[in-house]
Amino acid sequence: MDLRNMVLQAPIGICLLDAPSLEIEIVNDKFIEVAGKTYEEIAGKYYWDTFAEARQYYEEALNKVAEEGIAFFADEVELMLIRHGKEENIFVTFVYAPLRNADGKVNKIAVWVLENTKQVLARREIEKVTDKLNIVISASDLATWELNVKTGEVKYSDKYLAILGYEKEVKLTHQQILKHLHPDDLPRREQAFKDAFVTGSLHYEARIIWSDGSVRWIEGRGRVFYDEGGNPSYMIGTVRDITDEKDFTTRMERLVEERTKDLMLSSESLQKSEHRYHLMVEEVQDYAILYLNREGIVENWNTGAEKIKGYKAEEIIGRSFFNFYTAEDRQNNLPQSLLRKAEETGRAGQEGWRVRKDGSRFWASVVITAVHDEKGNVIGFSKVTHDLTDKKRTADALKKNASELEQKNAELEKMNKELQSFAYVSSHDLQEPLRKIQTFASRILEKEYDKLSEHGKELFDRMQGSAKRMQALINDLLAYSRTHNTDRKLEDTDLKDLIGQVIQELKEELEQRKASVEMHESCRVSIIPFQFYQLFYNLISNSLKFSRPGHAPHITITSQIIEGSKLGNSLLSVQTKYCHINISDNGIGFDPQYSDKIFELFQRLHGKMEYPGTGIGLAIVKKIVENHDGIISANAERDKGASFDIYIPVS
After folding, report:
1. Which pairs from 373-376 meet CB under 8 Å and 24+ separation?
2. Which CATH number is correct for 487-650, 1.10.150.530, 1.10.2020.10, 3.30.565.10, 3.40.50.2300?
């Protein structure tokens, strides 16, 4: 594809300027769209005549590109442009990139531009929503926290410190926070986190101990977010002080128990207890407190119940408490289940939607406690309901905001993929001028070699070496970009055949180094053949490249199907079978501390003059393994060789 077609078909706006005249020679539709002008207003015109509004800000940068050949990059800058005859403020990311002729002089300037007005404005809108949400949270009794599961780093709001009993701002680690938990409640909290890593949701209640020795109750809720491998990555959540609720519930349960015992003593004591109980309950307006018989019929009703549920006592006493539940919950027998649990365990708690007399819904926290006679028989139930609708709405708003953030992240990922695609096309076209450089250099050395000084010959040798390294880098980058292909066409393949093809390809180098490749067991597996060919090629080439001086390279390759439970690797599923591939050699090895670093893009452990390469080969290998939902690890010692273990799941 020539340069003109590349510009015209690019997915982002591009125009090509002549240097130094700054006349616009080529412009594509995307650029015209961003500029908000017609083709006739741009093509062939002096650049600053077309974009006079931006001249005072970026003329110096463009001149520097033309004069010094140094690219200029601006990210998400705000510009006022005349588009379609009107002034508009837009946000753009653009690059002034120099293009050189065969003599190395800047003769063209490529202007790449991407409008991101919608993204910037959307992000600002999200920030506004987040600020409003923070105001709501600050006004409530909720404290917020974030936990990095992998590093243990924790972030929290000022309210969080207040709940832990701190009057001024301090910096606490995750372990320092855990020290505030009551020792008896630590197992409950740990189990809640284990369950959350499986279900994605966290909920627990526990006691905390302040520095002055006082004990408080807290309720923790949160959500787990996972990395690409499905492992817990970080958590966000809330904490609130429920000491008053706990104290109230405990007092109420104790009072109910005391009154129930009094009822059994005598008729006179019963009347007195009932009278005190009714007086106490009637005074409570923030909680609905009622008494149910064994069948769930309402027999007692307080002012708080009338306020929350909307029924007067005479309208509901004698009717079933099923009336407070939604049709769905009644159909699923939730009321009966709660009574049965309270009868069996003594207590049943639940949160969910309930229905008022007028049909409206509210979010309720309910505790049902079994009432026993002196013989231990259940004679009824006390039921305490707290209206948590406002807190429920706050929690829902947090979830909605998280969902919106996920959507924005998805949009950003889409944009990144488009930019990657453009980089892939661009890297193809970079090879054409590079080949010309290599060809012209070769011709000069062939025909003009005797006319060059020794220093000139040395410079030409260095130039050719640099061109070869750049060619290798471009080829490796192209190979790496191909491993991002989401079109996974798996084929049932015998790994022995692929390895044989690679050995044949490297036959000359193997013979030159007197190297040997030893293959043992081999298995068939569903893979993308050309990617695994690249994988074996890179690993065997590495073994040859990093062989020990004076030692003939010896490479051993094995592959076999093994149950995950027998591999002893915590990252693997014990219920899955894996094709385990091992490739080891007797080369120079490396320090074990770099076992993970070697798979990173452009990472090199040796000088490029001592051991040539681009630092991309093992990154390509790792990407290919990840494309097959597998994992790879490396083990080595200095001067004792290296070993690579690959695990690919099989059906």
Report:
1. 373/260, 373/264, 374/261, 374/264
2. 3.30.565.10
Separation of alpha carbons 252 and 553, rounded Å: 80
Backbone φ, ψ for residue 45 (5° rounding): -90, 160
Counting every residue written for the chain, the total comes to: 651
Buried b or exposed e, range 501-512, using 16+ CB within 10 angstroms: ebbeebeeebee
Residue 486, amino acid: T
In CATH terms, the superfamily for domain 248-387 is PAS domain (3.30.450.20)
DSSP one-letter code for 49: H
* Residue 92 near residue 114 (C-beta atoms within 8 A): yes
Q: How far is the C-alpha of 530 from the C-alpha of 491, rounded, in Å? A: 10
- Whole-angstrom CA distances from 300 to 14, 110, 293, 316, 393 are 77, 82, 10, 9, 30
Tell me, what's the pLDDT at 482? 56
Structure confidence at residue 607 (pLDDT): 44
Q: How far is residue 204's CA from residue 219's CA, in Å, rounded to a whole number?
A: 6
What is the reported pLDDT for 613?
A: 47
The residue behind tokens 């003059």 is 609
Please tell me whether residue 352 adopts helix, strand or coil conformation.
strand
Task: Provide the 8-state DSSP code for 181.
Answer: B
The Cα–Cα gap between 280 and 213 comes to 31
Widest Cα–Cα separation across the chain: 127
Q: Determine the angle formed by the axes of helices 267-283 and 243-265, rounding to 10 degrees.
A: 160
Cα–Cα distance measured from residue 373 to residue 259, given in angstroms and rounded to the nearest whole number: 11
Tokens of 92: 């753009």
- Contact (CB, 8 A) for 539 and 583: yes
Dihedral class, residue 550 (left if φ above 0, else alpha if ψ from -120 to 50, else beta):
left
Phi, psi for 458 (deg, rounded to 5): -65, -40
Cα 334 to chain centroid, rounded: 37
pLDDT value for 184? 92
Select from 109, 37, 116 the least CA-distant residue to 416. Answer: 116
- Strands laid side by side in the 201-209 sheet: 154-156, 142-148, 232-241, 215-226, 201-209
pLDDT of residue 609: 45
Q: b or e along 231-241 (b: 16 or more beta carbons within 10 Å of the residue's beta carbon)?
A: ebebbbbbbbb
Q: CA quadruple 64, 67, 72, 77: dihedral positive or negative?
A: positive
Cα gap 309→292, rounded to integer Å: 16
Cα–Cα dist 258/280, whole Å: 13
Residue pointed to by tokens 């002080």: 241
Domain ranges in the chain? 3-115, 122-241, 248-387, 393-482, 487-650
User: Could you report the per-residue pLDDT of 486-518, keeping only the tens digit for each?
Assistant: 456 788 999 999 999 999 988 888 999 899 999
Quote the pTM value: 0.35
Dump the DSSP string for 552-593: --EEEEEEEEEEGGGT--TTS-TTSEEEEEEEEE-S----GG
The C-alpha atoms of residue 560 and residue 190 are separated, in whole angstroms, by 39
| 3-115 shares its CATH topology with 122-241 | yes
Q: pLDDT tens across 172-190, in order?
A: 887 888 888 899 999 998 8
For the chain, which ranges sit under pLDDT 70?
A: 1-2, 129-141, 256, 260, 262-285, 412, 414-436, 438, 464-488, 601-615, 651
Residue 651 burial (CB count, 10 A) = 7
What CATH number should be reported for the domain whose range is 393-482? 1.10.287
Instruction: Report the relative pairing of strands 554-563 and 516-519 from DSSP bridges.
Output: parallel
Q: Which of 314, 295, 305, 426 is nearest to 366 (CA)?
A: 305
- Cβ atoms 90, 1 nearer than 8 A: no
